[in-house]
Amino acid sequence: MRIGVxxxxxxxxxxxxxxxxxxxxxxxxxxxxxxxxxxxxANAALxxxxxVKSGEPCTIGMCIPGAISPATGKVKNAPNxxxxxxxxxxxxEALLQRPVRMMNDANCFALSEATDGxxxxxxxCEVGPATRIEGRDRNAAVYPCGACAIGDDCPIAHxxxxxxxxxGLGA
Length: 171
Prior knowledge:
The protein is α+β, with helices and mostly antiparallel strands. The protein contains 3 helices and 10 strands.
């Protein structure tokens, strides 16, 4: 079984997913505001609470607002959440004592849609673009308001047009 955790600025929702991809259990809590340690502990506690329902250790994936900087390993551009400037993934792994896969929420959505849905390019107007190009997840530089830096992983550099109105699908 697997656990997926959607970490947001106002709520955290964890789901327990069976081997067929069906949701077996779901649990939601409010995100502690302005207190990184409280938010960290709350996320770990929620994850462990839902894992109990599986009766076995589970793999864990988390989507978060903002992005993890490849240069520092710290979260950046996480609106309305207390994660900026912290190594949230490493801290969660230490608390849960196992690997935790963590990625920007828009990138997770793009990966899900590219794998199971119809979309190939997603633009989240709060945190920036997330893309699947040539079957690979691309973590474009993340900036507020859907703007991205032109670089190798930027969809614009690959000639992909992205709507900037928050509807999410490339044109």
